[in-house]
Write a structure and sequence with these properties.
The chain is α+β, with helices and mostly antiparallel strands. It has one domain: Glutaredoxin (3-Layer(aba) Sandwich). The radius of gyration is 34 Å and the shape is elongated.
Length: 268
Amino acid sequence: MSADESVGSSHPLPVATAIEKTDRGEARDHPRGITLDPRTLFVGGAVALIGIVVFGMFLWMVPNAAARELKAACRGMRVEAELNPALCPGGQPCSAPVPAPDFTAQDLTGKMVSLREFRGKVVLLNFWASWCGVCKTEKPGLNAMSNELVSDDFVVLALASDRKPEDAELAVLESVAPAALADPAAVKADVAAVYRKALPNGAPFKILLDPPPGDENIGKITASWGIKAVPESVLIDRQGNIRAYFVNKRDWQSSVAQTCLRSVLDAD
């Protein structure tokens, strides 16, 4: 009786047995189930391990490459290599990126504004004061750059170590709209009105007040960042991390400044 004829006979094939043809076409019985070759397991595991290592290296290289690109883009801006210890974990000198300390300050309309409100945007935070002559010479470039770049993705905050809005408004007018000060009497009578007339949409950078305590010149928030003199500026990414720190004034209208700022805008 042939193998085919045995089906349904009184001597059926055992359940645990199947018929398999050899390479020569011969039929042989072999147990059902999957048998894994140890060599196959070893090779598969090695390939998987290599894949994990490569993926891990990729994840490690991406942020490092981004950091190198930003550093190269901002090199001409003379970025500080180390941050002020006040911004670092444990108060020890460190390098960017580190989380930017949150704060809340009043704008020119009296509204309270916090830094965390701008999470998801790239922020240039400029520390300045109306009594700072160098700060005022920096403002035309900051104004021009803000007019060009400020958008839904980018905001410029100008935190002034001033007690009164009028002081900050007057300093901005002196810097970016000096023609508005042609009538000293009108300015003396109502600085705010002159400011609104000269800049009906306000400055392209958002002015916030950081009143100094007592007889101090530096605002409380500014001092908490470890700043003892202005101007200083901080570039913060969409995740709220400090990416670059600038001591003293910069030409924000220059091509190197534009490249530096766009490197953070394009990276996120």
